[in-house]
Amino acid sequence: MSGQPTVIMVHGAWHGAWCFERLETALAERGIPSRSVELTSHGTDPQAVGDLWSDVELVRRTVRETDGPVVLFGHSYGGVVITEAAEGLPNLQRLIYLAAFMPDRGESMRTLTGGGNAPWLTFENGMHSVQPGWGTKLFYHDCPPEIAADAESRLVPQSLASFGQEVTTAGWRSVPASYLVCTEDQACPPVSQRRWAARVEKAVEWRTGHSPFLHRAGELADLIEQQL
Asked: Which residues pair with 182 in a beta bridge?
């Protein structure tokens, strides 16, 4: 049995649990159990896609179903999800934010991103999608080309509703939290990351882009281990 808490990983918008496959392996090599959730707020069928609230309920249910202490690890939009989901979970030990949006009460993903319609997105049927080529520019600019191309090919539309819904609680106010700042990030401004990192107990600056779990999983696993 591992003496470590289980790390439950929550991915960002347009992505899926697939993006943490390398990180799960790296954590397992260090004796750290982990699980990756597949959020409800993305997909190809607008009628079947959920929103922030269904994402939060999924994460809460996953934490409740996990034996022993749990750490929630959120990347990008996943930071919004874990911020709301953290309330009322007795076995939740810590929040870890990686290049993640960290709202306060009454804020939303749209609030934190300025509320504009980014030119690199297309909008249809209550969803928004990343235009071809922009995934590599924003999310994977420092990844090897073959990894970036594979990741971009897996991106799917994201619910517009999930970006507009405001959190009702700020879990980082009551649960110990860490923030991993990605100083070369092209998607989530490092200046914003530093502002959010100043709110929490532990903060680390790391010279990397937005998605280090794809090509620097071992280093990221070491950083996570240091926060546990």
From this structure: 206
Residues in the chain: 228
Instruction: Say whether 121 sits in a helix, a strand or coil.
Output: strand
pTM over 0.90: yes
The answer, yes or no, to whether residue 86 has pLDDT greater than 70, is: yes
**Phi, psi (degrees; rounded to nearest 5) at 107:** -105, 160
Two structure tokens written together for 216: 């620097």
How buried is 190 (Cβ within 10 angstroms: 0-12 exposed, 13-18 middle, 19+ buried)? middle
State the average pLDDT over residues 1-24: 93
Rounded to whole angstroms, the Cα distance separating 81 from 10 reads 8
Q: Cα separations (Å) of 54 from 41, 74, 226?
A: 8, 16, 31
Is the pLDDT reported for residue 75 higher than 50? Answer: yes
Could you tell me if 94 and 63 are in contact, meaning their C-beta atoms sit under 8 angstroms apart? no
